[in-house]
Amino acid sequence: MFDSVTHKIQLQSYFDGIGFERWSAIYNGQAKLSHIRRTVREGHELMLNQAASWLLESRTSGTLLDAGCGTGLFSLMMAQRGFKVTAVDIAPRMVEAAQTTAEQIGLADRIRFTQGDIESVSGRFDAVVCFDVLVHYPRESFERLCATLAGQCDGPFIFTYAAYNRFLASLHWLGGWFPKNHRRAEIQMMPDSVVAGALAVAGMRVRRTVNINHGFYHVRLLEAARD
Length: 227
Known about the structure:
Blueprint lengths: L3 H12 L2 H10 L7 H24 L3 E6 L5 H9 L1 E7 L2 H13 L6 E5 L11 E4 L8 H13 L5 E7 L2 H10 L13 E2 L1 H10 L2 E11 L2 E10 L1
Parallel strand pairs: 1-2, 1-4, 2-3, 4-5, 5-6
Antiparallel strand pairs: 5-8, 7-8
Helix pairs in contact: 6-8
């Protein structure tokens, strides 16, 4: 039986430990990476740029929730564009790194950083984003989290998920044989029908999607809108 509390503790431990070391190196454009990790960095950058383009089509300012902000790349990008950002992450080290960067570049007054579970965030926002977070949750938790975040959003809800396909499944099976320093947290692939159903609970529909496939980075980016 799936234990959501234990699962969250495990995610926090990973992303505050080896996951922080791994992903902060990938996110940091100055760090030297292996070929595998370099393709992940490049794919992640492609995804963030596409998400920013979608968001800016409908909003050029307002309140933004970055649920699972990591080291703050998207939060910083949108704060520079004029958004007032609430950035939350389950891992204290991620939040600390993001906050330090915001202070260094003079954006600390435009971003409110919070360490905690994304389900603990309250309030409503003009837009909500959630990148490479929901991919770590099995169906029951995914549906609940997706519906909760969508319900807090007055405008676009943009997020990534791992859409099921055989190639992606084989990559994750192959990844289990990689040396430990190349592995990542387990990915949960989700049928499109489950995603659409979770959005419908919150009165949202799929507006558009795009697959970001670059080397070892594979996600589906989705924008949802109010009916």
